Amino acid sequence: MTQSDTPHLVLVDGSGFIFRAFHALPPMTSPDGVPVNAVYGFTNMLARMLREHVGTHLAVIFDAGRHTFRSEIYPQYKAHRPEPPEDLRPQFSLIRDATRAFNVPSIELQGWEADDLIASYACAVRKIGGTCTIVSSDKDLMQLVGDGVCMLDPMKQTPIGLPEVEKKFGVLPEKVVEVQALMGDSTDNVPGVPGIGPKTASALINEFGTLEAVLAAAPDMKKSKRRDMLIEHAEAARISRKLVELACDVPLPEPIEDLRVRELDKLTLADWLESMGFRSVLSRLGVSHPAGAHAHRVAHATAHASINGAAQTAATPAPSESTPNAALLAAPYSGYETVRTAEALQKWVSAAQEAGLCAVDTETDGLDPLNANMVGLSLATAPGKACYVPLRHEGTLEEPAGEQLSVQAALELIRPLLTDDTTLKIFQNAKFDLLVFDRAGLDYASITAVDDTMLMSYAQSAGLHGQGMDELSTLHLGHTPISYDSVTGTGRNRVPFAQVAVARATEYAAEDADVTLRLWHVLRPTLRTNQALALYEQIERPLSPVLAGMEKAGIAIDRAELGRLSEDFAGRMAVMEKEIHAAAGREFNVASPRQLGEILFDEMGLKGGKRGKAGAWGTDSSVLQDLADQGHDLPEKVLAWRQLAKLKSTYTDALLRQASTEDRVHTSFQMAITTTGRLSSNEPNLQNIPIRTEEGSRIRQAFIAPKGKKLISADYSQIELRLLADVANIPALREAFALGQDIHARTASEVFGIPLEGMDALTRRRAKAINFGIIYGISAFGLSRQLGIPAGEARSYIDAYFARYPGIRDYMERMREQARAQGYVLTPFGRRCYVPTINEKSAARRQYGERQAINAPLQGGAADIIKRAMVRLPQALKDAGFSARMLLQVHDELLFEAEDHEAKAVAALVRNIMESAAELSVPLVVETGIGHNWAEAH
């Protein structure tokens, strides 16, 4: 390489490249079984630059840590970012090793981000008349592009100059910080001004020149939501500018003259490449490896084949299909060890740490992890290599339990493994096991480096099949595990797991861990090929411990209020029963569907009844509602009685039974049940309490804040309609949301041609019914029943709606076609929602599938957004110094418990986090309320 007096400095954004390479390349492992896909991408990029003689000076810049001067300015800066993926963590140090192996300077500086070092070096080299190429695609670095400084996208190998910057930001590089300050950055938790996106921000800066000029002009702008936001969030915008502007005066850790491109030490480089298994890079660079090294590495790789899932002698992609490879199937599901002593368990713990990963499973005496006792636990370190540790088996005279470790002794031995963030722990439904360990004495929050095969599967196949271990094993491994019933018996003959013979328990429990580990080997690679890795890593997996904390916390109830409600409901039901008997002409058991059917269709002779297979008349709610719509009094009264009976049995009575000794109710959140990604809850189900009825409000009044505290409700406003406006690209709806207009009044005005001013309530109600009905694929018949109008009139409303918003009809048809073609639709955040009935022969089932296809991206998108917020909120509350905690999630609402004096500040922080959870073309709006009980807060 020719040395020049005019330096051309190439700066590689090492930290930025690591993440891009990791997510872009398929899984790869070194001969030692260490993940190396990001290392491989980095190595190829560095080799290409050296081979093509780019620059006279070269350095790779890294982040030294998370805490920088920006954290002092704004403690929430980057605070919500999740921990790096488990198979990325070991690659950070390996990439630094790679830099040294290539004899390239590796630079980092505590207290400063890599971007600031890059900016300082770029400015310094430009000052002395040199030029600089920044190898990165990071948008924050684009503010540096200009005379003597350009960028190069390392993945696409394309230059980034003035035209590319202007295309992305709408302004030239020197104005990029002004635009970023206004729009903020949800990735780094830079607040910006809510509701202002890149187009609006660039338009404002192009008009006024600078952020300060925009803020100064805001009071004189035309009254609008945007103007109000600029005024209200002016200080946040100023803070944002400080956060996004790169520092160009960082002390340079190494002088520019020391960064000259150095000669390769071929032996050192060859040895390192060989150790990684990067022999293709060896050959491209034309360097040879030391004699004998290859044979040693091949033998080492073969020895690790059972751990890595395939005999890989070089870094190659892991299996990308959903079918298991031969190495996984080869190991038998048998020969498991029963671990009875501390010495034996320590050997398994050490083996797991040496392997770098293991599957873990617990056995309990109940299904509620908050009250169940751990009976035993199992570990698997490789396919076919697993053990069971009995802890509380009782045994029988015929089959004594034998020697067992105590729970506390076992926990002390396994604690270093579970809290070791360099060893991956794999669970099936991790939330359950985390809470079981927590109850046993090991804080769930201390268990780190966790993967969950249930959530891996769910992230890429929601709605396609169940996510239980047995079903996944049959589907992916072709193996049917030992069933729980075959071990414990069924019905009256079932015995508690603690009474199962230890030998039989070992076969069952150790196999669970073994199957979980094998499923991980199959499902982990498919996350990337099915484009579900980000969804799993950033939403589903980090949400698990968040929900565990919510379940453990529970929510306080007012027993006296619930008792009064139960008595009141019982009294009202008794009165209703007398009215029902009078309408029927005789007494009967109102709770008996058979007796009710006989009265309605045999005795009263009402039309529309259908008999079931057993010969009894059908009397479900849809049948009764049809009869009530025809004007019949009896079915209407029965529907009202049933609603009250359900509320009494499901809530007022059940909550009193389910409350813990400290008068708190602990629901269980189901993470992998729905097709759309929505959470569901049970024991009790708190998501079906009626919202708009007096009874539902009274039940919510029984959920209370303890003395000295308040409940805070935070609810996304019309989030599915906002998503519809965004994904269907409806200009009128997007404008209405951007301006903060009444969306239903605006729709009524657009569709029915009525001025917004003086809009009557009936017309607005009809527009509201259409707006929400469209999301669920409502028919003219359904709308007519909802509004109480003829079906023809309802059809004319829907036709007028689509005529005004043709983009919505296009969106609906596009979703139907996507579902028909590929079997699933995608949320805006990449979640696959499978629609199994979309191609059914039955018209009714097919139409149901079409409605699913239309709604799933919207309902699923809303679920993704609130989950993103939930992942960020606990750490954000902690960082802000609040003791508040998140208690419940009910569809689009989150409920918190906070100290009285913190409630307003907590509500403001929660609103900010939730509104910045995603960036749409319309603003996300969160409504908050504070109260002594849930009803008052909601």
TrEMBL record:
Catalytic reaction equation(s):
DNA(n) + a 2'-deoxyribonucleoside 5'-triphosphate = DNA(n+1) + diphosphate
Q: Where is the 5'-3' exonuclease domain?
A: 7-262
User: Mind listing the UniProt keywords for this protein, alphabetically?
Assistant: DNA damage, DNA repair, DNA replication, DNA-binding, DNA-directed DNA polymerase, Exonuclease, Hydrolase, Nuclease, Nucleotidyltransferase, Transferase
Q: What class of enzyme is it?
A: transferase
Q: Does the keyword Transferase apply?
A: yes
Q: Name one GO molecular function term.
A: DNA binding
Query: Has the keyword DNA-binding been applied to this entry?
Result: yes
Q: Which InterPro entries match?
A: 3'-5'_exonuclease_dom (IPR002562), 5-3_exonucl_a-hlix_arch_N (IPR020046), 5-3_exonuclease (IPR002421), 5-3_exonuclease_C_sf (IPR036279), DNA-dir_DNA_pol_A_CS (IPR019760), DNA-dir_DNA_pol_A_palm_dom (IPR001098), DNA/RNA_pol_sf (IPR043502), DNA_polI_H3TH (IPR020045)
| CDD domains in alphabetical order | DNA_pol_A_pol_I_C, DNA_polA_I_Ecoli_like_exo, H3TH_53EXO, PIN_53EXO
- GO process terms (BP): DNA-templated DNA replication; double-strand break repair
3'-5' exonuclease domain spans which residues? 336-528
EC number(s) per UniProt?
A: 2.7.7.7
Query: Locate the DNA-directed DNA polymerase family A palm domain: which residues?
Result: 696-902
Q: Which PROSITE patterns match?
A: DNA_POLYMERASE_A (PS00447)
> What does the record give as the function of this protein?
In addition to polymerase activity, this DNA polymerase exhibits 3'-5' and 5'-3' exonuclease activity.
- NCBIfam families named in the record: pola, PRK05755.1
Q: Which family does it belong to?
A: Belongs to the DNA polymerase type-A family.
Q: How does it assemble?
A: Single-chain monomer with multiple functions.
Q: What is this protein called?
A: DNA polymerase I
Q: Quick one: which gene encodes this?
A: polA
